[in-house]
Amino acid sequence: MRQPEQHPRKPRVDAVRNRERVLEAARTVFSAGGAEASLEAVASAAGVGIGTLYRHFPTREALFEAVYRREVQHLADLAEQLKKNAAPVDALRQWMRSNVKFVATKKGMSAALALAAYKNPELFSYSLHRLAQAVGGLLDRAIATGEIRDDIGPEDIIRALVGMCYLHDQPGWQAGVLRLVDVFVDGLRIQPHKARDTPRAKAKTKKTRG
Question: Where are the domains of the chain?
């Protein structure tokens, strides 16, 4: 007798909802309390039992990694939204400012993330690729309008953000870094009459004359 086909069961709606609540609570709790914040505090903030938390995330490292991946995906999604709803330079600025909040979460989880990365090096390579891809689209859009200099790449943006965030550890560091982000973005802007001096413009001029 032929057995009926077995199809993977979709997660129940309430299970998906609980997982998202745990991840959102973990982001807040770990950002405020650091890597040693208890999982019981996360479960309480999420409004679920500790058993429910462990069913979704059997280890502390699994929870940290899931929060990290979720934040990276949110930043990638945000880049797509900003392309549609914000002017090119404002979109780049808003995305960079959102990254500062992301780094604040990572700082609270740094010890556990280091452990997770040791066990799974793909975690950081994945995040780096996704973030560079996201900011690359915003950068290309701003360059195409002639508002941003064209001799900078996505990796330069990521390195600048990392440098600005990780050199500041004192209380209230986020406000200072957000000011630096504004200074950085304003420094990337070019005046219309200076557009001919950028590397891309010079190459076009040379090609035209040739």
Answer: 12-58, 60-209
DSSP codes of every residue in 118-177:
HH-THHHHHHHHHHHHHHHHHHHHHHHTTSB-SS--HHHHHHHHHHHHHT--STTHHHHH
| Amino acid identity for residue 82 in this structure | L
**Per-residue confidence at 49, pLDDT binned at 50, 70, 90?**
very high
Domain 12-58 matching CATH 1.10.10: the answer reads yes
Q: Which residues contact 18 (CB under 8 A, 6 or more apart)?
A: 46, 48, 52, 56
pLDDT tens-digit series, residues 181-197: 999 999 999 865 544 45
> What is the CB neighbour count within 10 angstroms for residue 58?
10
Of residues 165, 167, 158, the one with CA closest to residue 104: 165
What's the whole-model pTM score?
0.74
Residue 207: exposed, middle, or buried by beta-carbon count in 10 A (0-12, 13-18, 19+)?
Answer: exposed
Q: Residue 147 CB: number of other CB atoms within 10 A?
A: 18
How far is it between the farthest Cα atoms of the chain? 80
Task: Count helices and strands (H / E) in the chain.
Answer: 10, 0
Q: Is residue 108 helix, strand or coil?
A: helix
Q: Give the Cα separation of 139 and 153 in Å (integer).
A: 8
Say whether 60-209 and 12-58 share the same fold: no
CATH fold of the domain at 60-209:
Tetracycline Repressor; domain 2 (1.10.357)
